[in-house]
């Protein structure tokens, strides 16, 4: 479990990944995006997560460059993630997609590259491309996103390199306990996208009660719940005060009883697509 904003988890290949980062899903290119990335780094974040389908890799790259310049940091001080989209799954097309992401970001390498969705019969060839990039030292770690247990078992049956990360929808309405347990058994780090259920949980009465109890915001309660489950998380915000607030998680701890109360909110409810029925 991470103990401060710049603390890391160690992936099974030895790569150290920050336990908290900035997500930029649905953040359009432009000044707000650049400023959000810059602000996150200024306030101590060391991880930024994007994807080719988000259409904002250039803005993320510009934000990174400004933050590095202004803060005297080096590229290796940051952990940058992107993902290959469904249309590019395949060996050669995935390699080309990686180069395109690097060009847009203005970077020489990525710290983590993920297959975005487990599109049937396509992700194995894409994984072979990720293995090539990894074995050539062009990416520090490789993984998947939105893979369920059966997808992981299928991939593991042919993989030469085990995925280091699985980024999935994870929040108190979708706790995915079997997947979390399987991931820990396999040494695959689970990472949460949409940890706040795209804002739908911010008025939940149980979470509001816990927020009042601990003197924290509902968002902080949820993100602390992630941290105590050992799940890497990447909350999204373009507002500087929210970026700061989302990182203020390390001066309190949820009791075991309250962790279980939050676990009990599970309804297997998604705000994103079902990975078993998302093939485009």
TrEMBL record:
<dbReference type="Pfam" id="PF00248">
    <property type="entry name" value="Aldo_ket_red"/>
</dbReference>
<feature type="site" description="Lowers pKa of active site Tyr">
    <location>
        <position position="83"/>
    </location>
</feature>
<feature type="binding site">
    <location>
        <position position="116"/>
    </location>
    <ligand>
        <name>substrate</name>
    </ligand>
</feature>
<dbReference type="InterPro" id="IPR020471">
    <property type="entry name" value="AKR"/>
</dbReference>
<dbReference type="GO" id="GO:0016491">
    <property type="term" value="F:oxidoreductase activity"/>
</dbReference>
<protein>
    <submittedName>
        <fullName>Aldo/keto reductase</fullName>
    </submittedName>
</protein>
<feature type="domain" description="NADP-dependent oxidoreductase">
    <location>
        <begin position="32"/>
        <end position="266"/>
    </location>
</feature>
<keyword id="KW-0560">Oxidoreductase</keyword>
<dbReference type="InterPro" id="IPR036812">
    <property type="entry name" value="NAD(P)_OxRdtase_dom_sf"/>
</dbReference>
<dbReference type="InterPro" id="IPR023210">
    <property type="entry name" value="NADP_OxRdtase_dom"/>
</dbReference>
<feature type="active site" description="Proton donor">
    <location>
        <position position="54"/>
    </location>
</feature>
<dbReference type="InterPro" id="IPR018170">
    <property type="entry name" value="Aldo/ket_reductase_CS"/>
</dbReference>
<dbReference type="InterPro" id="IPR044500">
    <property type="entry name" value="AKR5G"/>
</dbReference>
<comment type="similarity">
    <text>Belongs to the aldo/keto reductase family.</text>
</comment>
């Amino acid at each position: 479990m991470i103990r401060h904003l710049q603390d890391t988890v160690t992936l099974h290949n030895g790569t150290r990944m920050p336990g908290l980062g900035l997500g930029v899903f649905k953040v359009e290119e432009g000044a707000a995006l650049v400023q959000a990335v810059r602000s996150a780094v200024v306030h101590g974040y060391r991880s930024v997560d994007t994807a080719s389908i988000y259409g904002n890799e250039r803005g993320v790259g510009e934000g990174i460059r400004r933050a590095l310049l202004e803060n005297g940091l080096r590229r290796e001080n940051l952990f940058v993630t992107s993902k290959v989209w469904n249309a590019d799954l395949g060996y050669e097309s995935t390699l080309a997609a990686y180069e395109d992401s690097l060009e847009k970001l203005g970077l020489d390498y990525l710290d983590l590259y993920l297959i975005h969705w487990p599109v049937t019969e396509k992700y194995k060839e894409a994984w072979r491309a990720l293995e090539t990039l990894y074995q050539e030292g062009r990416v520090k770690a490789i993984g998947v996103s939105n893979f369920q247990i059966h997808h992981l078992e299928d991939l593991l049956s042919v993989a030469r390199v085990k995925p280091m990360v699985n980024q999935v929808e994870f929040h108190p309405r979708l706790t995915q306990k079997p997947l979390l347990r399987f991931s820990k058994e396999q040494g695959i780090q689970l990472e949460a996208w949409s940890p706040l259920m795209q804002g739908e949980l911010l008025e939940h009465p149980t979470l509001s009660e816990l927020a009042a109890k601990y003197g924290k915001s509902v968002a902080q309660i949820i993100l602390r719940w992630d941290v105590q489950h050992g799940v890497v998380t990447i909350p999204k915000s373009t507002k500087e005060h929210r970026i700061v607030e989302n990182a203020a998680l390390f001066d309190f701890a949820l009791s075991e009883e309250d962790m279980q109360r939050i676990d009990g909110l599970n309804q297997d409810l998604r705000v994103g697509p079902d990975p078993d029925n998302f093939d485009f």
